[in-house]
């Protein structure tokens, strides 16, 4: 029933998908929930702030972590460093091999790989390297209303999300280096693709699905055709993709709740280690 009890706006939308639709469906569902007194009385649960280094953002590409990896063996163009950015929520990763990393290179990377491809992030977290906190990049971020946060020597774990991703990227690159030698920069695209299409433990979803609302077709599905590959229909595909766009907010909401549970477990483990 349209006016049945609901937990939040996504549940209301889900009830509407049973057979009703109009152009302002989502907006009306949000307005309905905002007027519901019973919904307002339900408290929201937030993660404990006992360990401030654990950060979470429920909106994609709003909090991004930047870091520098390397040096690697010299690749074509004298490239030996890797500039990495990861979204704290979806775990989507962007990376670019560079010969040297300057303020200008960092700004170009953020503009091209984050802003123009997705959106202007609300916050960027990085270490205290001069490439991230020089006058030019500070003024540039202020102009885009991007808040900068820096990790300290005492608490480098504050950018731990990027550190974990870097380890995965480095492992993938090193494995490929055994075959391709100094061509690690050329293999980077494949490593990024594998990372983006693999479910992450904290969200239970792939970064690709949380960004685009659907799963990417990967080579394994072509070698041994998956159900969706074998039963592909152009007409059904378009309808399902449109449906996925409606469902993406609920998908992100579920992933956010998983992240909250995952981080609560991490906090408990952290507190036990500190006490012991």
Explain the overall architecture.
- It is a single chain.
- It is built from 12 helices and 5 strands.
- It is 51% helix and 10% strand.
- Helix 1 (9-16) packs across helix 2.
- The chain has a 5-stranded mixed sheet, with helices on both faces.
- It has 3 domains: 9-40, no CATH class; 63-192, 2-Layer Sandwich (Nucleotidyltransferase, domain 5), CATH 3.30.420.10; 207-275, no CATH class.
- This is Integrase catalytic domain-containing protein.
- One of its GO terms (biological process) is DNA integration.
- Pfam families: rve.
- GO terms for molecular function: nucleic acid binding.
What number of structural domains do the residues give? 3
Q: Kindly report the name of the CATH homologous superfamily of the largest domain.
A: Ribonuclease H-like superfamily/Ribonuclease H
Order of helices and strands: HHHEEEHEHHEHHHHHH
| CATH-derived topology of the largest domain | Nucleotidyltransferase, domain 5
End-to-end Cα distance, whole Å, is: 53 Å
The chain-level mean pLDDT equals 76
Q: What CATH architecture of the largest domain do you see?
A: 2-Layer Sandwich
CATH class of the largest domain: Alpha Beta
Strand content: 5-15%
């Amino acid at each position: 029933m349209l006016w049945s009890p609901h937990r939040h706006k996504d549940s209301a939308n889900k009830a509407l998908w049973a057979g009703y639709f109009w152009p302002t469906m989502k907006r009306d569902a949000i307005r309905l929930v905002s007027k519901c007194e019973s919904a307002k009385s339900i408290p929201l649960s937030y993660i404990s702030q006992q360990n401030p280094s654990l950060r979470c953002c429920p909106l994609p590409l709003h909090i991004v972590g930047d870091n520098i990896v390397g040096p690697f063996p010299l690749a074509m163009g004298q490239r030996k460093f890797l500039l990495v950015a990861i979204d704290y929520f979806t775990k989507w990763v962007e990376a670019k091999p560079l010969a040297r990393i300057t303020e200008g290179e960092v700004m170009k990377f953020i503009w091209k790989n984050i802003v123009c491809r997705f959106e202007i992030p609300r916050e960027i977290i990085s270490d205290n390297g001069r490439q991230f906190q020089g006058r030019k990049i500070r003024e540039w971020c202020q102009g885009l209303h991007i808040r900068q946060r820096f990790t300290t020597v005492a608490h480098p774990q504050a950018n731990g999300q990027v550190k974990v991703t870097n380890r995965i990227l480095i492992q993938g690159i090193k494995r490929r280096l055994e075959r391709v030698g100094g061509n690690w920069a050329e293999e980077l695209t494949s490593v990024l693709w594998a990372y983006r299409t693999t479910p992450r433990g904290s969200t239970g979803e792939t970064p690709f699905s949380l960004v685009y609302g659907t799963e990417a077709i990967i080579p394994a599905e072509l070698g041994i055709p998956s159900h969706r590959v074998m039963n592909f229909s152009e007409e059904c595909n378009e309808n399902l993709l449109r449906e996925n766009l409606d469902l993406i907010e609920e998908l992100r909401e579920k992933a956010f709740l998983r992240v909250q549970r995952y981080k609560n477990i991490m906090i408990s483990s952290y507190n036990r280690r500190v006490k012991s």
